[in-house]
Structure to design on (298 residues):
């Protein structure tokens, strides 16, 4: 009985297996031979096919990167600077642009018309106007007067560059526009770096920059008696680095003064204008020396 009971399921499973084989065989006969399907599956699962699938359907994150809208206005948003200080900086840079135009006019008058040939008088005149501007308090009543002083100071400062401009033009006329473009790029980069950087992050440079100015003065006094070309060139490169540092320092110092309530944008403009002029002078002298050296070697 036990063997009969065990034999019945065995027979049933045999019949079930046979029917499954017949069904599979019928499906295979309807679909054709099995080996082409195996080869097709192998091709679809190959690395090349998987790569093609990935390329044709890139990940959603990749699509988000390329479809992302770029807000250019965010580049000029300074969240760490208050709105009033940002308005103050606009006035400072607007006055700075005015100074650049007036200084260019002064340089043109001195180089082309030769009206202001006395370099000593133009230097003393610009120094006197700067002292007068500094001594005049900033207020709404004196604003127009101080803007006139600023324009006169910028004009005489540009005229004071006349002899150096004439020397560089005599060596190679392309020195002047090259030096101006280089100065504009350097000034813009360092000024933007100071604006985007964390507040007070460059104010520690003040002591180093004053030491650099003292070292430049010492080199100049020593070179009067030594007359070394190498020392003069080293002093020019040192001055270029010091002026770049002053752009960083003065820009952040203007921000801190404005945050503390000092809104004298005219005097703050003088700081940046002097940084630009000194950078331009140092770079123009370096380019003139290098060009003159190349001519002597030829």
């Amino acid at each position: 009985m036990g063997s009969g009971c065990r034999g019945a399921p065995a027979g049933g499973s045999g019949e079930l297996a046979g029917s499954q084989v017949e069904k599979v065989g019928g499906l295979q006969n309807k679909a054709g031979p099995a080996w082409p399907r195996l080869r097709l599956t192998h091709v679809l699962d190959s690395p090349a096919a998987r790569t093609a699938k990935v390329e044709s359907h890139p990940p959603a994150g990749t699509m988000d990167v390329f479809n992302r809208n770029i807000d250019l206005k965010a580049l000029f948003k300074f969240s760490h600077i208050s709105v009033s200080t940002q308005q103050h900086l606009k006035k400072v840079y607007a006055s700075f642009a005015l100074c650049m135009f007036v200084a260019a006019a002064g340089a043109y008058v001195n180089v082309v018309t030769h009206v202001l040939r006395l370099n000593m008088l133009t230097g003393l005149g610009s120094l006197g106007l700067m002292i007068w501007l500094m001594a005049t308090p900033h207020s709404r009543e004196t604003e127009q007067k101080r803007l006139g002083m600023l324009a006169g100071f910028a004009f005489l400062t540009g005229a004071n560059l006349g002899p150096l401009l004439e020397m560089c033009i005599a060596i190679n006329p392309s020195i002047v526009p090259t030096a101006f473009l280089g100065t504009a790029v350097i000034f813009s980069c360092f000024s933007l770096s100071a604006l985007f950087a964390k507040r007070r992050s460059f104010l520690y440079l003040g002591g180093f920059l004053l030491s650099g100015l003292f070292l430049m003065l010492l080199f100049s006094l020593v070179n009067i008696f030594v007359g070394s070309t190498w020392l003069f060139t080293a002093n020019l490169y040192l001055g270029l680095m010091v002026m770049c540092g002053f752009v960083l320092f003065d820009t952040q110092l203007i921000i801190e003064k404005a945050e503390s309530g000092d809104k004298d944008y005219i005097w703050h403009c003088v700081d940046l204008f002097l940084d630009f002029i000194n950078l331009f002078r140092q770079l123009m002298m370096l380019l003139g020396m290098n060009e003159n050296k190349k001519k002597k070697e030829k």
